[in-house]
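Trying the structure run again after the queue cleared.
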Amino acid sequence: MKKALITGITGQDGSYLAEFLLAKGYEVHGLIRRASTFNTRRIDHIYRDPHPNGGELPFYLHYGDISVPESLMDLIYNIQPDEIYHLAAQSHVRVSFDMPEYTGNITGLGTIRVLEAIRKSGCKARFYQASSSEMFGGAKPPQNEQTPFEPRSPYAAAKVYAYWVTRNYREGYGLFACNGILFNHESPRRGETFVTRKITRAVAAIMAGKQRYLYLGNLDAKRDWGYAPEYVEAMWLMLQQDQPGDYVIGTGEAHSVREFLDEAFGYVGLDWHDYVRIDPRYFRPTEVDYLLADASKARRELGWEPKVRFRELVRIMVDADLELMGLPSPGEGKRILSERFSSGWHRWEHQVVSMERLP
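Done. Tokens:
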């Protein structure tokens, strides 16, 4: 049984990766930070209770911190994993402008702490570094493994540092270390402050009568959006190759935030122009206009291709947030609601206007 260690296991990618590896027969270990509140909701369904008659899955959580080298060294030395997936980071781009030093410490220096722990412990683990399409920044699309980086945020700059130290340890110390340059990948488990999930949650809340407006920033930014569960398979494939390398992962399609709004609100029969308001606070000091993946290397060498495309991705996310609100999915042909406002947004009513399945 192979052993895998995942940092950032409580995040979107970490939870999907844990499921994927358990299905492959791995023993999975996850690094979590100690907190006074539970922050494991994405992995609660696979958590293994250490007491008798607990879970049967070989899934273990360990307290630690990416900012503390000693905890990483002890963990890696004691577990001796075959594969390490380093996903932990301060990963919100807009927040990185407000917390640049913290972002550099966790997102950038956190990577070299893990690499040093591998090297000093003598562990022979294969290493995956979660790099980001944000590293390309202002580079002309499409972007591939040969495209020069032009980071335009503290987050992107920290990821560029992490990318290069991963390559340095591969070339200097012979570590099997890979950079997965993943373009935007979303799911119902996406954090609520990321724009895609912010939109789909708002759609559900508006339909439920619990929200009137959605406040956003730049609607013209274009991103290559894919489905997160498919992207964790690409991570795993990288570490199964004979030689380590760096790979761009994406769909090869780019859509603007406006298009995401069109698809999400249109899916439930609403016009987003009635609900979306622009708030300058959500604009970045330096914007990234257009990210588009050229993932031909991954297709050629890993045999990886995306299956879920943009429209299906948006509808998967809207359906999930509607379900959380206790509302039916329009994709199931149950009902489409329109809104009729009275004197205040909190008094608006639902009206069934169609029973037709949406196209």
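Residues 333-359 have pLDDT under 50 and may be disordered. Worth checking whether this holds up in the mutant runs.
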